[in-house]
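Z., the sequence and structure:
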Amino acid sequence: MLSDLEKARYARHFLLPGWDEECQKKLKNTTVFVAGAGGTGSPTITMLALLGVGKIRICDFDVFEESNKNRQFLHSISDERLGMNKAMSAAKTVYSINPNVRVEYFTDKFTEDNIDDIVGDADYIFDCVDKFKYKFILADCAVRKRIPMFFYGIMGYDFFGYIFYPPKTACFNCLFDKEKIQKIEKLHSRSSEVAAMSPALFSASGVMMLQAVKMMLGYDEPAYNKFYFGFGKQSNVLHERSVRGFKFWNTKYFDEKCAVQGFNWKTKDSTDLFEVLNITGNPECPYCGNMTNR
């Protein structure tokens, strides 16, 4: 049931076609897991709280620092948050945004051994972590639990996103080369700082959250098999360090699917504001190629 205060809070939702109190109850009965309460986690967690999602499980072992203030507004309430664990800080802010939302937070790193317990009964996973080794752990967990994982982030001025939900979509291993990424991350393990600005982070989170709401409420078909790019810089694309780095993550299959649609990572030097590529699962993928409904 929705209280009178909740009905007043979500009144503008009820003006949307197909969104009524029953839809809001669906959100109230939904549990999500957000991995990371930093750059992309900050707008993601905020939007989930504003929407009225019933329970948010948040995991982040990092602490809030001065250099985070240009984008992580979830923690920028006051300088008292400096040095505080981000998951704990996020929980405090969520309660101030919407006290109807329950939060469970975890301050330890998740691993292959504990990820299933930390994700718990979540219906959806939001991947808001930086390092790919953690993204693979999340992706494997999502497959085991048969729940969708929303993958999105930034590369400099630009952003990207995709819904992983095999067998409806490709799996994470279809698109990204684990062995190659492990070598790259090991090579650059000492460099933890990455370029980041708030507009790109918020854009990535906003686009993906629109897809998440579709799945939670079922009012429209989510953008399955659509890999989207948003470009803050539309010329000299290949000269951007972030784009050069991005192409090294890809599997040969992902590159070939992009090239067939006119997006060649080796030659693309100018682009539109948005690029949306149809990337279905790889039928020869050793991880998901034998799944049904491919």
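Residues 198-217 form the longest helix (20 residues). The chain has eleven helices and eight strands.

Let me know what you think.
H.
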